[in-house]
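Lecture notes, structural biology module. Today: joint structure prediction for complexes of two components.
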Amino acid sequence: MNKYDEVAALVEDYCDGNLDAEQQRDVEQKIQQCSSFKEAYECQLQYLALMSEQQSEVPPLSNYDVGKMVNHVVSSGTNNNGSFWRGFAAASVLAASLYSMPMLFVDTPAPLLLSQGIIDTEVTLVIDSPEDIANAEFTIELPERIALQGYDEFDELNWVLDFSKGKNAISLPIQIAAGIDLSEPVLIKAVIDNGEEQRSFELSIDLIENETAYIQENKRPLV
Amino acid sequence: MAIINLFNRKQSAQDDFTIWITPFVKSLHATAFHYTRNASNAEDLVQEVMTEVYVRGTWKSAENPKAWLTRCLYHRFIDQYRKHKKLSLVDNLDDVAEPMGDGCPSENITNKQLNSAIEALPANQRALVCLCDIEGYTLVDLSNILQKPLGTLKSDLHRGRQRIKKALTAQPFEQPVRHIVEGK
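The predicted structure, tokenised, for the full assembly:
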């Protein structure tokens, strides 16, 4: 390592906060007094600014794209893993039950666990669609004291979405008011309208995934 | 989380995986994009990682899913890069000609120039630079996530940063254009 590299490495450590307090002070002093340190420091700042701009360069990935990618993985993964006949049989069962009532999943009740303050969390809805549906109007009706983040004055929200055949994942950032029993799944009403047909659902949603972690972090709220 | 099921059937392993993986896909995609510098390659890389963890069933036992997926993505990127060398032209530090420059990026650097500088790095340095300087992980975080010694990561990161700085100083902003004036 030549002298320039040594200076640059020290300055990088200084900017990354890898040095102890005394070394941080030493480097800070050298940056003020020594031209090579000063130059390396300015150079590092310029580099870091350039790199941090790259965060915003990522092309956006819509929930629809996420659903498509995951759907591709589970369908190709299942076909790789199992037999053709198993995949075909599953597809046949799905097609046969196309017009039957949707299933409502209800989770086993857990002990009472009340939210202490406002909680921001994210729930993912996975919609298994029998076919590609373009421009479907998706409406959800939220129960009291649960709101979509940024839209807390609305009880009902709707979007126009494209559903691809198979699984479609929709992430909803929600805000839960204090005093809600987190161990109980909440019911959200949803309607999908493709212009010709309208289907209504009741979605049972677990508000928190990991209750044990929540209890530890919040030192066991009211039971 | 919930399943809206347009069919009358029970929640399957596919549903479990879909619910498990979905919250991480966007961040995996962003990291993959930083690694590959290309949207289509990023999607392919994420798909490959997801398929691998789904088919092997290893996702069921992951204690810290985000860290574990980040490590899977890192290793997949390095493997893919070494096997196919599709994502860049160079792999080994010894193969790379040192860019000439005073080591400080000039002003008015374009995205294209930065992309070229990052793409010219060996895979491990490229991944580290992306994780630390774009995504904001600390070396200590990365040592835990990637399960690699802190010293190794630190020297790789330093080399990567120096190479980028030198490349940005060395390369011309515009390709020189030679105007040929034909004689009368």
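Point to remember: Residues 122 and 200 of chain A are 22 Å apart (CA to CA).
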